[in-house]
């Protein structure tokens, strides 16, 4: 908690946690853009495939829960993945309001090529696996606390 005496330092750009996270996110996006260009994927498409590689055949809303995205953001992304032949989109038989997303053979095969991405990102960050895990866990904890606000 800052006091009135700390105002100048508290308002310095480099003192902002939000800026540290934002500028790191920009650097990570730049790194992943380069890594994912070989797979012809955008970063949001990669995240979506990670969710499906973990558990295939999910509804748009289930994927959105994992990625913290709404269906209006996900739908165009999923349509592009379908157009690339990586997923199928089909109305649920149980509830026609739901759209189920499933990997195609091409989408499943891409998983093998994507296995090098996390290691390459870790190497670029020059973190030990333990440091990366600590940082990841701290950020997940921060997000959970912010979600309760």
From TrEMBL:
It is found in: Cytoplasm. This is MarR family transcriptional regulator. Residues 14-144 form the HTH marR-type domain. It comes from Salinicola lusitanus. Keywords: Cytoplasm, DNA-binding, Transcription, Transcription regulation.
